[in-house]
Amino acid sequence: MSLMLKRFLPYYRPYIGLLCIDLGAALALALVDLAFPAVTQQIVDVLIPAKNFAALGFVAGGLVLLYFLRAGLEYTVAFKGHVLGVSIQRDLRRDIFRHLQSLDTRFFDDTKTGQIMSRVVTDLFDIAEFSHHAPEDLLVATVRLLGSLALMLVIDWRLALIVFAVVPVQAFVTSKWQGRFRKAFRKAKETMAAINERLEENISGARVVRAFGREEHECELFDEGNGRFWQARIESVKTLGQFDAVTGLLSNLSLVVVLAAGGFAAMRGSISIGNYVAFTLYVARFLQPLEVLVRSVEMFQDGAAGFRRFLEVMDRKPAIADAPGAVVLADVRGEIAFENVGFRYSDDRDRVLHDINLRVPAGSTVAIVGPSGAGKSTLCNLLPRFYEVEEGAISIDGLDLRRMTIASLRSTVGIVQQDVFLFSGTIRDNLAYGRLGATEEEIREACRSANALDFIEGFPEGFDAVIGERGIKLSGGQKQRLAIARMFLRNPPILILDEATSSLDAVTEAGIRDSLERLAQGRTTLIIAHRLATIRRAGRIIVLTEDGIVEDGSHDELMKKDGPYRRLFEAQVEGLLVG
Question: Is residue 331 part of a domain?
Fold first, then answer.
């Protein structure tokens, strides 16, 4: 816990002034609350017996002003405290989002989107609530406890000791419940994350759900997860309720003892009626902070559980990062070399690539074909260091990828994939993602080169047309053209075309292929393709299987051999004829 506090406290540093205002108002609020019992004692013991109407009116007026002041203090605590909380929440969210950008692809392979969303949204809200309520509650509780105790000692030390006896018992009960709280609230957090995960997958896969008619099945899965959260939450509030009941009972029993003992003392005349009333009010002031702290346990446990989950992400170190003294790539020619490259995704999985040796001259085009699962996409994912090569080395212009900065490497390599990802904004926003700050004329020229200008201008809003989530309002061919135009803007010296046309019909593919060939001109280009007819014009084709690179040559050269390429090509031609 001390380590968690040590890591959390720096988030207060930018807001020291705001924290001081919040705590100063909370302190003043606590002191104002201590004044009322003392004023009551004076009214009962002094003003009423003396029938001093003028003084009573004056004191009442003073209390009215005091409570106007108290209202202002309450507003300050509520407003400034929440400003502090949401500011810290903003900083936490900024830090975790930036850290997520630094994590490697393997992290996102292993972590579901709903789990990440839960940490960034739900957990940080709980942390924000805790971050401003905890200092306020602790300060107010301390002042009220110590202030009430001191004033009770002044009135009657024997009665004060009776009240004080409840504190160590409360502390003991609280310590006994800590482990149960931690377990219960963490389980509730985890089941809530599972609900977010189910929801995210259902929304993302809405078309698949409806295509298979699995709406009821999805509802059953969601109900199951929702039920687990309900059960976990019931357990946490049950634990909290038991704790609240026990501590409340202890407080109320001590109050009964004080009322009885104080009543006997007042009957014997050892304490005045005013002091008895004031003491009783101070007892309420003394017990109230204990009750507040008890209620704060839930908030504390929620915040602590959320911050632990926050730290789990923040403590995840990127497996791929810039090495000390990493070089910034400049004036890239685009010569690529794979030397004895081997790779597998995890220790418990078979090796995907082994002993791959391939040299691609600058400015040339190489097509990579082979059966599914042979590692074609994996080979290309190693080039921009989405994954780290485990054996051997990959170099660009003779420089090992691990010796260059990741930012400069990835600005050198452009990728056009089969599954085009477009953001939910406008066409212009998605195009400009290729080069932030691109001019209108540059965007239009990129679209013209990608044969995309005609369909864009066909929209009433033109470049300002909103395309929906993942570009849902566009056809497959339109999305591909936008992806190609975006890559024209990026203008990388090395290009990877990963199944860029495999999901398109033959007519659309023919139009896209012209754009891709135009895009590949003057660049080192790697083409991954299942449809072998699309790469017949490639100057060089390599065949990748589970055994590595088994063939290398032009289409005509490979067709003359009775090898894997010819068998793949003939099988596809036969399939087309049968179809």
Answer: no
State whether 300 and 341 are in the same domain: no
H or E segment at 114?
helix 113-118
Tokens linked to 52: 């001093």
Helix/strand/coil for 182: helix
Q: Domain containing 521 — which CATH number?
A: 3.40.50.300
CB atoms within 10 A of CB 319: 12
What's the chain's length in residues?
579
Residue 278 lies in a domain: yes
Per the CB < 8 A criterion, the answer to whether 334 and 494 are in contact is yes
Count of domains observed in the chain: 2
Domain that holds residue 530: 336-418+493-578
| 296 and 340 inside one domain | no
Phi-psi region of 104 (alpha: psi -120 to 50; beta: other; left: phi over 0): beta
Q: How far, in Å, are 160, 278, 286 from residue 157 at the CA level?
A: 5, 14, 14
Q: Are residues 139 and 285 in the same domain?
A: yes
What b/e string do you get for 264-284 counting C-beta neighbours within 10 Å, with b at 16 or more?
A: ebbeeeebbebbbbbbbbbbe
Residue 454, domain member (yes or no): no
Query: Is 353 domain-assigned?
Result: yes
> Is this model's pTM higher than 0.85 or not?
no
Q: What is the pLDDT along the chain (579 residues), one digit of tens a residue?
A: 567 778 888 888 998 998 999 889 988 888 887 888 877 777 777 777 878 888 878 888 888 888 888 888 888 888 888 888 888 888 888 888 888 888 887 887 777 777 787 777 777 877 877 787 778 877 887 888 788 888 878 887 777 777 777 777 766 776 666 667 667 766 776 777 677 777 766 666 665 666 556 678 777 777 887 788 777 777 777 776 777 677 767 767 777 777 777 777 777 777 778 777 777 777 777 777 766 666 666 667 777 777 888 888 888 888 888 889 899 988 889 999 999 998 888 766 777 888 889 999 998 889 888 887 788 888 888 998 888 888 899 999 999 999 999 889 988 988 888 777 888 788 888 888 888 888 888 888 888 888 888 888 888 888 888 887 777 888 878 888 888 888 888 888 998 888 766 555 565 666 677 777 777 788 888 888 777 666 766 778 998 888 888 888 888 888 888 888 888 877 776 554 444
Residue 48 and residue 134 in one domain: yes
Cα 140 to Cα 138: distance, rounded to the nearest angstrom: 6
